[in-house]
Amino acid sequence: xxRVLVSALVVVLTLGSLLKVRAQEGDETPQGGIHAPxxxxxxxxxxxxxxxxxxxxxxxxxxxxxYVDDTTGTRFLISEGTKPVEEDIxxxxxxxxxxxGTYNLRLVIDLEDGENMVFVVPNLRxxxxxxxxxxxxxxxxxxxxxxxxxTPTPTSTPIPPTPTLLPTNPVEISNSDFTxxxxxxxxxxxxxxxxxxxxxxxxxxxR
Length: 207
Hints:
This protein has helices at 2-27, 145-149, 175-206, and strands spanning 33-36, 42-43, 46-52, 58-67, 76-81, 88-94, 101-111, 116-126. It is α+β, with helices and mostly antiparallel strands. It has a domain at 33-126: Immunoglobulins (Immunoglobulin-like), CATH 2.60.40.10.
């Protein structure tokens, strides 16, 4: 019997803890704020602004923008309301109607007790009529370690030999020498032939 009572008591305590946790979870209220766009983002055209205004004690909210460099505190209204918005589109921002530049987006939630909650998204770049800046990496040339440490090997280039002119062959017979020798030989033979003929004629006469 005692064990049964102890078991029942443990069950009751466990159920009580679970009910308390669920009650606390049900009491949690969403955190207000702007979820998109993000700080520093480049925007064009009509931009959906996502966020939450559904907080405890909500009285009203107002969404506006201002130039980053403005020192007068001037702000421009985008949208305002009293209905809670939970993780949904708060407003549509038509950025094409303003000058390209850098802006801050601000959501102010006024509470019933007179307090307010302020959320700011800084440095939003409107780029409807100017190029969107892109970071271009600078390429640094790197040296190949192997080529940097290698020592060039000298190579010899053969020089072609200079041709040497040979002296003139003293026994070389030219065409003119051959012709002259032939003519002289012919004349000599003719003279010998005439002498022999003349000698034979004289000898016959003397008989």
